[in-house]
Amino acid sequence: MARPPRIDFPDALYHVTARGNGRARIFFTDADRTRFLDQLQDNVTTAAVLLYAFVLMENHFHLLVRTPRANLSQFMQRLNTSYALYARYKHRRPGHQFESRFKAKLIEDDTYLLALTRYIHLNPIKIAACRDLPRAELVRLLESYCWSSYPGYVDAKRAMEFVCFDVLKMYSLSPATARRQYRAYTHACLLDDDGPILEALKASRYAIGGERFVEETERRLGALRTGRSQDADVAYPRTVYPIVEVDAAVAAHFGLDTEELKRHGHSSGAAKFLAVELACRLTRATQREIGEHYGGITSAAVSTIRRKIREGKCPIAELVDQIVRKLTRGKLNT
What we know:
The protein has 334 residues and is α+β, with helices and mostly antiparallel strands.
């Protein structure tokens, strides 16, 4: 998997995630989680990183960090390497423990801190197994989950010394009042999602913030591209197109009406396959959204179409590249 580029500067804020290789589990026992937290504490101290929030899930973890020394990559490399060596020996699992490099989104400013801590802390009860549980049970699960920084946010006696709780000062200078209000703030999204922060997380692979900040961050990252071989596995920002532009490009090439692409069935043939592939590559729509757009096909059907193209069973790979070039150059009608 391509590695994302980085922007480092003193006091930068990041939402960091790392996932098990092939989405496999990275934590099997409480001893594993305890070992990781010990290593996290050691690395936070050594790298002088401010850790605002964290959560450990079965196959991934989230961190919310500030880097006064502009040293995120060194911090995460040391953390992931130390845990990977432990897990490889402890569970006799050779090979990579983590899926490619960690992912880190640059955060615009402190105004996003509060919502991001809540998003991170609610991860344990936002899984499929909890989807239909009553509110009282969700409260119980959240309050009893000890593998996140949430316990310290609502109970001073459970605060970990390597976590920075300055976010609570946004509520009150009284720690007790701030913790009480933070608990209520978190409980407010037990049943409903925090729409604005989810939109901010979805908007870009590289940044969390306002539209202008996201565009500027992606522009700066794109400017880091050198064209050298070292760039080959770096996932630089790409231009994103509305799905209607994809429709227009494909329809123009095949001499179709765009509505034909969106009808249920196979009447548009290779044109629909091409449109599905391009939409997956060039838009920010999910496979489910793309399937719904093109005649209500399932996300599994979208995956099947893409696999057939990769395997050469639907020989339109060159056509895909041709349409991408036309879109990039803005020549939809050529």
